[in-house]
UniProtKB/TrEMBL annotation:
The chain crosses the membrane at residues 12-34, 66-85, 97-118, 130-150, 246-270. The keyword GTP-binding does not apply. It is found in: Membrane. Pfam families: UPF0014. Residues 309-332 are annotated as: Disordered. It is a multi-pass membrane protein. Belongs to the UPF0014 family. This is TIGR00245 family protein. The keyword Hydrolase does not apply. InterPro entries: UPF0014_fam.
Length: 332
């Protein structure tokens, strides 16, 4: 296969960053309020990928099983932190360690079995094969967890009377929480189902693109993508089988992580004495994240002032109610 890749420099990265800067300026001009989020996300992308490439380069060169194990644990820790503090608007008691346990139980077995048997890698822990796979699995799991937990916590915050009615009629806590769990699971796995329906027809998936750019044949890249998609998403079909009371083995990591996390969440919010524990659910972010949000708000405020000075837009004084009152007085 002909060499198709080229050497990329930081100049190329800067050119790509110009698109994000353009979006941020456009957001600032239109008042969308997402310019700071775009810039922070772009900065995180640069820093995270730079650090990851440095670490992975050394791990790949060493070809050491303990290095691979350390990277896998580190990725799970970061994924649990992301799912707990960034993807969830509300958090329950001891959420981080419980989400970490769900991540480990859902990703490690699937990644080991997938690389050992489905991808025929011997040993399974080959760094250039195992680490990208577990990274993709964790990325998919984070998205599913975020949707499922946000849906569940919103129901408990706004519509907990339904659960209370079930409990008052003698239902167990799992029977009372089952409708919420089923709805959350369906919603969480819907993006995966949609992705499976268009993959190869409309979109060329990321792993396949990377394999092609890396020099693999198109046929091998397609087969690799099939294995990855099946190992991360196939058991989403279980939801539809369950409606017909057909048992199925849930082995996909995203579904397994979401199921375990929902179990921990519902067990925390409805205790063993069949009581709803709303006091265990909070929307307050940790101190470090509050500092980060405050700093981001200050930066956005300064950016708005600079943008207003550049565009010549004068800042209106007073609140909307005060201005409306003045206008009413003038009209009277």
């Amino acid at each position: 296969m002909a060499e198709t890749s080229s050497y990329l420099t930081w100049t190329n990265v800067l050119i790509g960053l110009l698109f994000i800067i353009f979006d941020s300026v456009l957001s600032l001009f239109l008042g969308l309020g997402i310019s700071s989020s775009l810039l922070v996300a772009a900065l995180r992308c640069i820093v995270q990928l730079t650090i990851m490439s440095t670490i992975l380069g050394k791990v790949f060169a060493s070809n050491n099983v303990w290095g691979v194990f350390g990277i896998a644990v580190l990725l799970n820790l970061m994924a649990a932190s992301e799912a707990t503090y960034n993807k969830s608007k509300r958090r329950f008691t001891n959420m981080f360690p419980l989400i970490l346990a769900a991540m480990l139980c859902g990703t490690i077995p699937v990644s080991v079995l997938g690389t050992q048997y489905a991808m025929a890698q011997h040993p399974f822990w080959q760094p250039d094969q195992y680490i990208p796979i577990i990274g993709m699995i964790l990325g998919n799991a984070i998205s599913s967890l975020g949707i499922a937990l946000n849906t569940t916590h919103k129901e408990f915050s706004e519509n907990k009377d339904k659960v209370e009615t079930y409990l008052a009629l003698g239902a167990s806590r799992f029977e009372a929480c089952k409708p919420i769990a089923v709805s959350a699971l369906k919603l969480a796995l819907l993006p995966t189902v949609n992705q499976l329906s268009v993959i190869g027809l409309i979109s060329i998936p990321g792993m396949m693109t990377g394999a092609i750019v890396g020099g693999k044949s198109v046929e091998q890249a397609a087969r690799l993508q099939m294995i990855i998609m099946f190992s991360t998403a196939l058991p989403s079909k279980y939801l539809y089988m369950a409606e017909a009371n057909v048992a199925a083995v849930i082995s996909a990591s995203s579904a397994l992580c979401t199921l375990i996390a929902l179990f921990f969440s519902l067990s925390t919010l409805v205790d063993g004495c069949v009581r709803i524990r709303s006091d265990r659910l909070t929307s307050e972010a940790p101190l470090l994240y509050r500092w980060r949000n405050e700093a981001g708000a200050k930066v956005l405020k300064v950016a708005k002032r600079v943008g207003g000075a550049v565009t010549g837009k004068k800042r209106e004084s007073g609140t909307a109610e005060e201005r409306r009152g003045l206008l009413d007085g003038q009209q009277g």
